[in-house]
Request: fold
Amino acid sequence: MNILFIVPFYPTKYAEWGGIFFHNYAKGLVKLGHNVIVLRVGTQNRWEIKERKKYFIRDTEIRDDVRIEIFFFPKFPKIDIFSNILLYFFQKQIFKSIYKKTRPDIAHIHFSEFDTSYQASLWLKKYHIPFIVTEHSTSFIEKRLSAHSYRNIIYVLKNAKYITSVGKLLQSCIKQITGFDSEVIPNCVDTDLFFYKPLKKRDFIEFITVAVLVEKKNHKMLIRSFVKAFNRDLKYRLTILGEGPERSSLEDEIKQHKIEHLVSLPGKATNIEVRNALQNSDFFVLPSRFETFGVVALEAL
Reply:
């Protein structure tokens, strides 16, 4: 079966740390004998343009036998309507290039609240390609959906052939907010990559958490708890693995407590680097305020 993934983010050579769990889904389907193509179309801000040195990027990447069709274009600051018009146009154009070579039998949309999902559902309907939706978003649990997001969600879920959610609490919240039923299918982990490895004895104890550096992951609370629990004892260390907009704020928090020698922020990491970091740690910590599933906790096990 030819399966088309519609995603708002995905790990590529341009941004390794976003959406690892999407790739785990895709790899699992490939192992079952399916052909998976990922449609990764989205905006890039001025910092990303500066880093990548291109305003427009069109690329194809093969990762673990998953084909990723990539297109990035500049985001219009504070004028979302123009970005959305361009998103619809570029997303459809890249889809047409896929369609000419390989007609998808079904599409798999992840996160119904994003414009990538809403725009895709419009043209998938025109091409008579059925789609299913897997819902991951903590926005349902936190009940912080904007009117725009709610519009996207209702349209996408209404036209989906099937709806799944990654956890029972999320399933309940989706039903309460939208009226739609969903089947719980948990996230998956690549057990060929993540496995138990005995840790050698050493003279310190390492705690680790792995997440995007955003406010809802509650890393500041973790840092403060670490200080309160161990009072700068050199025996204990903390690694916060990931990247995101909260980095500078977390760095300030670490400096304020004078624990730069005990708490590290290594930055973004590949799946293999995450695996190695988990295997080299004594304890995994999950300080998030909300998680619909928390796949990294499963990887840590």
About this structure: The domain at 205-300 is CATH 3.40.50.2000 (Rossmann fold).
